[in-house]
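Researcher: I'm preparing a figure for a lab meeting and need a structural model of a single chain. I don't have an experimental structure, so a prediction will have to do for now. The sequence is pasted below. Please return the structure as tokens so I can convert it later.
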Amino acid sequence: MAPIQKILIVKLSSLGDVVHTMPAVQDLLAALPGVEVDWVVERAFAPLVARCKGVARVIPCELRRWRKQPLSLQTRREWRAFKQELRLQSYDAIIDAQGLTKSALVAWLAHTTAQGRRFALANRTEGSSYEAPTRWVSDVAIRIESRVHAVQRARLLCAQALGYAVPEALDFGLQPGTLAATPTPLDKASLNPFVPRKPFVALVHGTSRADKQWPLASWVALGQRLNHSGFAVALAHGNAAEKATSEAIAAQLADAWVWPSMALDALTDTMAHCAGVVGVDSGLSHIAVALGLPHVQIYNFDTAWRTGPPQGVAQSLYQVSVTAQPCPNLQEVWQAWESLDTPVLCR
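Model: Understood. Here is the structure written out token by token.
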């Protein structure tokens, strides 16, 4: 078989799943010097993938939106344009890291070289969605152990597909960009909008599932402890309801700032300047992990083993998860925060 030169990763969504796939890209780039990697992803997450080191071309799609109006003129035009962009390049390896019908369709539509092959998952892993078409359209279906962390699943898939061993070191390769220069409420004298007078901790309370949320009173009490410890508090939001929650928390804190609405890339760049993050199981929390920030992730279910900060790696000294039902209490989260072994935190 000829040397692999071009690889296509198909991982469309969701935000956390996209983040969890980034280390696999870093692994294969290190194992196969000189290869080029393209990535197909939902347009909403394309700015984040563009910050993943080594990705040559980000190919955005909008399958979520197209499925709502499949026969509309706009959808048909955009679908044709997407297929045209997808087929600009032929690939030596196409890896469906999603394992769903929609990702199988994209992998099938993409062109391989004469010796190229399509790789996919052969089985469902615990806690993850899986649909059979992903293996139907593949040339090689790879079986992965059923109980495996989401990050490790992608790493194992790519390693077995391309013939290398998964390295011990973990690198997400997420590279934040440069912040814009606009004054902020926290530091009107600064030219950098996201560098307040003292270090700040971002509280990530927003999540798409109500059963993953942490009580508002707990966020307020945590913010008060952080203020007392010398930290300002920053609050992100992704919609009107989350903004209202951020404002309700900030109103009860001595030093807090509700971030303005930001696109995903700007939010990533801003979060990179935090002293740390405390958040629920959500895409933004997973971005905090990928950025290597001190982080406590809050779980109301025993699923941290699958999506929480990976353990047994260098980052595990300053990234931890806390799990309890119906939810962790304030003291458990605070003890986890204080346990973080990192010089970034101000004591």
